[in-house]
Amino acid sequence: MKTILGISAFYHDSAATILVDGKIIAAAQEERFTRKKHDASYPFNAIEFVLNFAKIKLSQVDQVIFFEKPFLKFERLLETYVAFAPRGFKSFCMAMPIWLKDKLFQKKMLFNELKKHDDNFNDDKKIYFSDHHLSHAASAFFPSPFEEAVVLTADGVGEWATTTIAIGKGNNLEIKKEIHFPHSLGLLYSAFTYYTGFKVNSGEYKLMGLAPYGDPIYEDKIKSNLIDIKEDGSFHLDQSYFNYATGLTMTNKKFDNLFGQKVRDAKHEKLTQYHMDIAASIQKVTEDIMIKIAKSLKEEFNISNLCLAGGVALNCVANGRILKEKIFDNIWVQPAAGDAGGSLGAALALWHIEQNNPRSIDLKDSMQGSYLGPEYSQKEIEEQLDKAGAKYEIIKDEELLDKTATDLSKEEAVGWFQGRMEFGPRALGGRSILGDPRSEKMQKNLNLKVKYRESFRPFAPSILKEDLSEWFDINVDSPYMLMVSNINNDKIIEMTEDQKNLFGIDKLNIKRSEIPAVTHVDYSARIQTVHKETNEKYFRLIKKFKEKTNCPILVNTSFNVRGEPIVNTPLDAFYCFMGTDLDKLIIGNCYLDKKDQNPSLKKDYTKEFELD
User: Fold this and answer.
1) Distance of alpha carbon 26 from alpha carbon 20, whole angstroms
2) Out of 148, 346, 486, 602, which residue is the most buried by the measure of CB atoms under 10 Å away?
């Protein structure tokens, strides 16, 4: 038995993964244990979890691999500061002591941290380092169902690379082309996240969700001034508008002057139509670049499969466009496409590329639905709920599903906690908040009363795979909520001329389809197809809901409030339930009704987490 522990850490979304004989056994992000969103610290808890799950001590692990090379990253920082000198001296002075003290000597630091798990771990020759973009590419190709594929990775920046093209075949994967820092599609998108007043590295989803409320009227301004896009999709950013290479902000005054407004102060300034148009413009530019790259890759390599990874691959609207344009026959996106997935990719790269182990392709899903985190037995669930002072009934599966489906059909908001926790940023029916998609109030209520977040943010439909093409203009699996598609015309309710003229967010309250809670303002939805093989209980719940309502869809959003990581333990779930307007909570076979709970256990959740 050969075991590899993969680690990603120290930028954002630290995580750990364990492979046994090349099979993915467990993976989790550190944030779920520490309750600090995007936690970047050494993933002590995540490592403890994956080791325990695999029933192995660290000293028995064959190799430990870190997802990137610190020396190359240090070289980039030094060269960047030299190239831009004397600009950026302040951030140089801030960055260097940290690098000289900790990051440059990462092997020693990792070794010292690893010893805390197991005193008998005493061989630093077991520690390896992967390349950041190779880790991403490996996380996308090796679990994919393809023998051969083009792999496109796009993110902020790794060591030097910001966009890479690799070719995967069998157990081999080779990077063929790279675009280097400071030219980065991820950082360009993040610059606009920052400019519209959202938090970089977590607010990008908001920018994407805001885009359909606007018109891309600044598209030409972006393409004429900020970015020079070549025919093959490669690009060059004009650094005179940005500050991220050396400064402490993403954009500068020249950027503000170009668009005619300052950076939005989220605390004091409301979102306006201007911000929606800005969001629409950068979203359109991003999609255009991804389409151009995809077309040129298909032409150059003539391979019919595409894999995507890196933070930009979480832009499910762009993914949906690549799919719709039928550039490739098949597309597969790594569900943990951001840095957390680097822990998985680094381990897989070591196993297949370095050690030349054969790869067996699982046409179903070698990511196992991405349900790779902790799970709790019925006994453990009851112990945690008793400790919290919760009141609950224990109900057998069939009746539990029937009761939950009835609650949902009455427009109640339900916390759903079953099986293993998801790996990656999306809740996929393991740690989810569920609702009735036919309800006109559901999107607004879930956003404002349960999630404490902006009302414009869209929710995803979970749909039985067999009913997919009856409701949406898509016929391929989308188990990870990484594809956006339009709702079918026969389910749409057309807006009147008066409604079309409403100000951006006022359009939110207009019923646009038979399933308004999951229909975005542009008639699109971020789809999750649900499969019996990967999540039988969730599949059966949706089936039961369909029997009662003739609708094979549920609203699915992550089980957390704004600024909080997705819940991990039954205790996390109970606290979130008591701190929000959720009506019911189903954990394992425990059924909790809000009305039965002791009101003194209610938490003020609005101030519990720092807003993202």
Assistant:
1) 10
2) 346
Domains, the chain, ordered by start: 3-140+338-370 (3.30.420.40), 179-333 (3.30.420.40), 378-607 (3.90.870.20)
Question: Buried (b) or exposed (e) across 564-600, using 16+ Cβ within 10 A?
Answer: bbbbbbbbbbbbbbbbbebbbbbbbbbbbebeebeee
The encoded tokens of residue 131 equal 């390349």
Q: What is the token pair recorded at 367?
A: 């990511």
Question: How many whole angstroms separate alpha carbon 439 and alpha carbon 468?
Answer: 20
pTM of the model: 0.93
pLDDT digits (tens, 9 = 90+) for 113-172: 999 999 999 999 999 999 999 999 999 999 999 999 999 999 988 877 899 999 999 999
How far is the CA of 222 from the CAs of 188, 206, 259, 519, 595, in angstroms? 10, 20, 9, 29, 53
Total H helices, total E strands in the chain: 20, 21
CA distance 31 to 540: 30
Alpha-carbon Rg for the chain in angstroms: 24
Residue 509 tokens, joined: 């309250």
Task: Please report which confidence band the pLDDT of residue 524 belongs to, taking 50, 70 and 90 as the band edges.
Answer: very high
pLDDT digits (tens, 9 = 90+) for 206-245: 999 999 999 999 999 999 999 999 999 999 999 999 998 7
C-alpha distances in Å from residue 400, one per residue of 434, 459, 464: 15, 25, 19
Reading the block at residue 457, the tokens are 């943010």
pLDDT at 191 exceeding the cut of 60: yes
User: Is there a contact between 121 and 59 (Cβ–Cβ < 8 Å)?
Assistant: yes
Three-point CA angle 445, 447, 453, nearest 5°: 145
Q: Provide CB contacts within 8 A for 29, sequence distance 6+.
A: 13, 14, 15, 39, 43, 46, 340, 423, 565
Distance CA 371, CA 425 (A): 12
Q: Which helix H or strand E contains 526, and what residues bound it?
A: strand 524-530
* pLDDT tens, residue by residue, 386-403: 999 999 999 999 999 999
Q: How far apart are CA 518 and CA 439, in angstroms?
A: 9
What was the pLDDT predicted at 217?
97
Closest CA to 5 of 24, 18, 20, 23: 18
Tokens of 461: 């439909």
Q: Are 213 and 507 in contact (CB under 8 A)?
A: yes
